[in-house]
Amino acid sequence: MTYEERLQHVSVLGAAGKMGSGILLLTAVEMADLSLKPGNKGKTFVLNAIDISDEALAGVMRYLRDQILKIAEKKVAGLRTVYAERRDLVDNDEIISQYIFDVMNVVRPTTRMESAYDSKMIFEAIKEDSALKIKIFSQINRNNSNQPWFFTNTSSIPITVLDEGAGLNGRIIGFHFYNPPAVQKLVEVIRSKNTLDEVHEFAMAYAKNLRKIVVPAHDIAGFIGNGHFMRDILYAVTEVHKLIKDMSVAEAIYAMNKISQEYLVRPMGIFQLIDYVGVDVCSFIMFVMNPFTKDEEIHSPLLDKLMGLGIKGGQFSDGSQKDGIMKYEKGKIVAVYDPVEEAYIPISRIQARVEEKLGKMPAPPAWKAIVGNKAKDEVLKTYFAEVKTAPGLGAGLTREYAKKSKDIGKHLVACGVAFSDADVNTVLLTGFFHAYGPINEYLD
Fold it and tell me: Is 436 within 8 Å of 367 (Cβ atoms)?
């Protein structure tokens, strides 16, 4: 079966979700572009958008239309060639409208799982629950005579667990998009121990056509991205527990968030990033990973406590940030939740005291100014050389955090999760938008 034949009938599970909607958009555009090739005229391409709520599916169809309009506007010159034989399409608006129609015409929103029984490919972006995934994969596999391939977006569950649990005989691969899939360039590709070569070859071709950067990972729970991120969280939480000897919990959280953002030159502090992903999601990923880790505990009682107090974070449907460990106004942090006081403490009440405790720091370069700077390596070398010898609590915490981040990256290579140091750095640079990889020599 050719690449195009495989993509003639596809289903996306969890199509209305945060990840599923992006996967749906990318796949719809790829399928529509294939359908518009001269040799494919007359062939039918079907993309089932499967979710449990008609209301949510109506919302994702609106999202698709808006996003396809933006895509069409950017490539209207190329679309003129695609529609060269259409004498009825003269101006750009007509061409754009036709392209929107052609992409939308591929998509079939439905709440019926049975729609996947005719598909040759299944993209899955449902809840991070191995039992649920296995149940659904098994159901489709039993009722689909096409021997479909399964592309799972899991960020933490070993692919072999899903493969063997659902009896897929290697017709599955981990294809982990980063959020949001339509924007993020990174995809982690993870083979189970049985993944068929032809499935892997197709995955690489599909990623190339989507212009994604592919990083392979071994089939070990959490893979590279969450393997680093979850351990990064646990380290920050450990430091919070140390700091509360001299600070309130809110002050300690604010301090470590400041260290991990400003002083480590990252786009978000660690607790802000937890909010972005969702406190509940991070906690569940740890729950998934923990049984597969040796000689370490991937679990945070602090996250458990926050969840018990209703602190979950995440985003609203429009992409804006919900309150979580931090309270937000117009995207900016204005308060920190203190689980002891069970209340948000305004930044204005704690900022001065925290900064006094941290002490004077070398002025860090701004992440926005450095992330695309060709000379950033020299800037970072100079900055961290100053951090290396700077006195005070803040400088010490920054040094130790950077070293721990590097140790985590090295651990992922040593224990066989990542193939190389470079792969770890690529995931953090591309998937997490860091200005530099954790495995570096800045503090050596």
Answer: no
**Contact in structure between 271 and 236 (CB atoms under 8 Å):** yes
Residues 71-128 pLDDT 10s: 999 999 999 999 999 999 999 999 999 999 999 999 999 999 999 999 999 999 999 9
Token couple for 209: 């056509």
Alpha-carbon distances of 233 from 7, 223, 313, 349, rounded to whole Å? 39, 16, 15, 25
Homologous superfamily (CATH) for 225-431? N-(1-d-carboxylethyl)-l-norvaline Dehydrogenase; domain 2 (1.10.1040.10)
What is the residue-averaged pLDDT of the chain? 96
Place of tokens 């960020």: 155
Cα 361 from Cα 346, distance rounded (Å): 23
DSSP 53-102: -HHHHHHHHHHHHHHHHHHHHHTHHHHHHHTTT-TT--SHHHHHHHHHHH
Parallel, antiparallel, or unpaired for β 186-191 and 213-217?
Answer: parallel
